[in-house]
Amino acid sequence: MPSMPAARILPSHRRYGSGGAVLSNLVAMTVRADRPLFAALPDLRVPWMPLAHVPTPVEPCTAIAGWLGAGERVHMKRDDLASPLYGGNKVRRFEFLLADAKARGARRLVTVGGLASTQAMATALFGRELGFPVRVVLFDQPLTRFAQDAVRTLVTAGADVIYGGGIPQTAFRTLRLLERGDYVIFPGAASPLANLGYVDAMLELGEQVARSEVPRPDLVVVPTGSSGTLAGLALGAAFLGWPTEIVGVRITAAYACNRLTVATVVHRTDRFISQRSRHWRKQRPPRWRIDGSALGEGYGYPTHEARDGAAQVMELTGAAGEITYSGKALAALRRIVRAHPEKQVLLWNTLSTPRPPIVTNARIPHELAWMYERETVA
Hints:
This protein is of the alpha/beta class. The chain is built from eleven helices and ten strands. The protein is globular and about 55 Å long.
């Protein structure tokens, strides 16, 4: 997406506030020092607020062991349970981003995503609970039932939902709609500040391994697009000194997610931390790779394997999967497990299991009414 005009972006601050309000009625109140990241880097001064229920559990993938072709050597890190409001991999990021928005005195949150964007849903739901108006600009992707439910969720949460069309048109429309005081969360929310959430997450897993709750994984499998989760996990493993390789299952086109783009996200996040903490010392280079085997035609397009993988999400968690991220991650996980019969593998589950009730009579914006008139692809 094109860079935002400087006059419309909130000015940076040399000092950050305390982080503002927290979801005290929804989340466990934790002390900052209890988080592994802040315990390891006590001089790290960044905006933060507690939003996630952590540590999230790690469980064997027993329910789908036959489908995977593996026994007890495949586990799942359940970030789908990171919040009773809405779980998944945005909660840990928002502990930093929404604290930053509060500290900067933001008047409104603005984000961009596909029609089925879980980031858009998370922004709308957490923004509402923290008292932020939220504007969401949506770009096209193949129409699914999950996308229909996602837009209903956005409307029910009170977000200002705008249809952007194609990606270039959406970028242009978003630029034109920005106002002073808007806090922009880019697609994927993969800024270095946000990625701290997944450095912390890997250190959390390190504590669970130390307590013998789960074997140390040789491979961690996670869906990836903007690659912030992958980058944070890889850097966290490097800090721990683990030889663990993070496998990012690519869910978007290679021009948007490739070795160069991922390496850039990893480098920027690494530099961000090293500039803010003298305690940041990686014990080995971060190990990661991209697996593009499950993509199919492109972002949001169904494949037979993705449909099958989405069905396995239901077996694992009791919540319906979808074909853009979770279904393709499971499809790739199955291949990876069978290709590496000697390795301990961990799936990092990034799709929320808690789901807001679907309000079928939600007042859908006129320009998105077509979503409920056309046939879905999945």
